[in-house]
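Bumping with the actual sequence this time:
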Amino acid sequence: MLASQVMFGCGGDDGDSDVGVVPPPTTTPTQPPSTPTPLVPPTISISVPSNVAVGQTVTASATLVTPEGLQSVTASVNGPGLSLTQTFSPAELGCAVGDVTCELAVTVDIPAGFTGSYTFTVTVTDLAGQSATQSGSFTVS
């Protein structure tokens, strides 16, 4: 049998002794280690027109969802004779660092003579360092 109390005593030269009882130690129940919540990666939904006439202005847009908070966005338009890339801070998009949802719209004037297939690409990075990339294509004719 295990003792649930401990007795202690102390005696001096005078013959008196003090006896006391030490209460049993209290224990704190331990919780099993919790599984960390996995980080949710960012997602992007892109909208681009399928066909654009030569000389027409193209508007491409993206909805950015960053459950871990928005850090930065890079957008590019690439095609025959045209390569544009721009990195945006959240403030430049009208959003704040840490926002979960943000909208991006990019307007590009395609000069006459630049026909062909173009790609609009968006890369978003969240505050946890995760990134996502999404692309959409359009044809200039």
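The tokens above came from a reply further down the thread. Strands lie at 6-11, 17-22, 43-47, 51-52, 57-65, 70-79, 82-88, 101-109, 116-126, 131-140.
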